[in-house]
């Protein structure tokens, strides 16, 4: 198949004009004085991380015992997910909706002895015997979280809703 020269030249001018138009559109969207919104957000995040780091460093000097803990993940699945695999969910933690943290606290008598502080990226637990502060493996929504005390096994279970930023 051969293409005549004049058609190639016409195609070339069309493509050149569209590339120039794209460049102009891109220039119209950007202003000569770029917005510092992203920079402000990153500064705020940096300041928050510094405060968290300082708080966790203070916990490192605490002489109280660090309790044992483990993370479990929960998924919300329907029959379609189980039998037909229609939603595209898999068993990995990326498809989980909740993160459950179980903390073993032997010697703690009641939940009112515990002070729990949940933030989107870290958690802090204080009691007369134990002290635990750590960064969480996933960002969470503290308002959608709940804690339950099992007095028979002396375990605190914290269910935290994972926030996915898509």
UniProtKB/TrEMBL annotation:
GO cellular component, as recorded: cytoplasm
GO molecular function, one term: dynein intermediate chain binding
Region (Disordered): 19-46
Superkingdom to which the source organism belongs: Eukaryota
Coiled-coil stretches noted in the UniProt entry, renumbered to this chain: none
PIH1D1/2/3 CS-like domain segment(s): 65-162
The protein's name in its UniProt record: PIH1D1/2/3 CS-like domain-containing protein
Protein's organism: Marchantia polymorpha (Common liverwort)
Higher taxonomy: Eukaryota, Viridiplantae, Streptophyta, Embryophyta, Marchantiophyta
